[in-house]
């Protein structure tokens, strides 16, 4: 019992010391530009890949679809009600 508590406390202390990464994508826009360099970051304020690519020309950057942007779900077509 004592070993189990020690193992639980040791595991908790181990994971409390590990730094956590914050979400780097803004869910408000569908496209993000990843800028590379000494301080790399994501710039998520583009409405299309074409817009992002146009602004990435000449920079050390790439464009990607934002994985956190909520996709619009198409409604399933309704089946007509059958008359009895």
From TrEMBL:
InterPro entries: DUF3551
First and last residue of the signal peptide: 1-22
Keyword field: Signal
Domain of life of the organism encoding this protein: Bacteria
The name this protein goes by in its record: DUF3551 domain-containing protein
Source organism per UniProt: Bradyrhizobium barranii
């Amino acid at each position: 019992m004592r070993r189990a508590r020690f193992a639980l406390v040791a595991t908790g202390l181990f994971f409390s010391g590990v730094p956590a990464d914050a979400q780097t994508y803004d869910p408000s826009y569908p496209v993000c530009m990843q800028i590379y360099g000494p301080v790399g970051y994501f710039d998520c304020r583009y409405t299309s890949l074409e817009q992002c690519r146009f602004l990435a020309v000449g920079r050390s950057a790439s464009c990607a679809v934002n994985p956190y942007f909520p996709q619009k779900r198409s409604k399933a077509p309704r089946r007509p009600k059958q008359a009895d």
